[in-house]
Amino acid sequence: MNDREFCQHLDIEVKILRIWVEQRWLMPREAEAGWSFEAADLARARLIQDLTGPMGVNDEGVDVAMGLLDQIHGLRGRLAVLMGAIRAQEPDVQRLILSKVDDD
Amino acid sequence: MTSPYETLGVSRDATQKDIQSAYRKLAKKLHPDLNPGDKGAEDRFKSVSAAYALLSDEEKRGKYDRGEIDETGAEAAPRQYYRDYAASGEAAGRYESAHGFSDFAEGDDIFSSFFSRRSGGQQRQRGRDAHFSMEISFLDAANGTKTQINLPGGGPALDLTIPPGTRDGQTLRLRGKGEAGFNGAPAGDALIDIRVRPHPLYSVEGDDVHYEVPISLSEAVLGGKIRVPTIDGAVNVTIPPHSNSGKTLRLKGKGLHKSGGGYGDAYVSLKIVLPEAHDPALSAFVETWEAGKAEDPRKGLGGHA
Fold first, then answer.
1. CATH value at residue A46
2. Low-confidence ranges of chain A (pLDDT < 70)
3. pLDDT score of B290
4. Can you give the residue range of the structural domain that contains A54?
């Protein structure tokens, strides 16, 4: 969807959207006609609305929260890959790894 | 989409009776059989009827009020949270950041590429932000200015606009001037922490500026127009006759730029100074000024015999 449709979904002004993109809280794909948003961007924008609205987080707080959140998802993605790789090992190897992480 | 309440012209806390009577009134006016050939009336009748069907059913009305169904009575789609997309990794790959764990990679261990590469391997990754700090004068911060900053690590000097009303500790952002992005992703930003040097005259309290301005004995006694410095240039200020040391004048709008627009105020505290050179005429006058000798400005301070 384009920026106008995106704003309609969220019931926000384009001005607000520009600020969010400026802050890099949203990084829409650059299409020929301007920004192009996907469902993930919409869900992310709703999170920003929750943070700034009912949860009362200020702009600096949103900046921190989104940065940490992106790190967490990066971590979770890598962890999922790692777990997949461990599960693909022989049961003996899996048990060895488990005993090692249990020790720590 | 209009809410069924708006369609019927009733408030959200209308009773069932209010809703029924509102519907009946509208139905009588809009019923297609009473408006043959009027397509507009028919459409409105349909939406009024649908609104009534929803609101007259207490259970449906409750569901609508809680946002569980929309005005057509259709179940509202359950909300998709961001984590659902982030977990799928697909579109969220744009946002995911690997900065938090690149330190897991140890030297040439065989996992180092696992931690430095992002899932999928092809994803774009925005460059890191680079942090700098810079000291500017109080007046540059207050009035704003354009300056240049040389970032460590070489490269051309960057133009930096200091907006008026910049405060100590504020961070300015130069978009795209941080580290380069990965796989065609945008570069990071340069973040510049601003330190504002204190000013010998002006001190800041919130959006207001406080300072002391000396006045002569005759200005203090007789009053008059004096030139007073402000952060954006001197202004004429009239001081009333008999203005004592410590008297504070407020210069409205002569403080700092507020972040939300507008300005703070300047508070000018007057300070009487005697002429630098000893003046026998002044001494002679005060000699003869009986009331001055009788006055005790330290009355009530304690320590009297």
1. 1.10.1660.10
2. 104
3. 87
4. 3-102
Would you call A83 an interface residue with chain B, using a CB distance cutoff of 8 Å?
A: no
H or E segment and range at residue B22: helix B16-30
Among B79, B91, B126, the residue with its CB nearest the CB of A40 is B91
Contact B195, B133 (CB under 8 A): yes
Taking CB atoms and an 8 Å cutoff, what residues of chain B touch A43? Answer: 79-82, 84-85
Nearest to B123 by CA among B99, B100, B91: B91
Q: What is the pLDDT at residue A40? A: 86
A9 to chain B, any CB pair closer than 8 A? The answer is no
Within 8 A of B86 by CB-CB distance, chain A residues are 40, 69, 73, 76
User: How far is residue A59's CA from residue A8's CA, in Å, rounded to a whole number?
Assistant: 22
The CA distances from residue B49 to A3, A90, B16, B19, in Å, are 35, 66, 15, 11
Q: Any CB–CB contact under 8 A between B175 and chain A?
A: yes
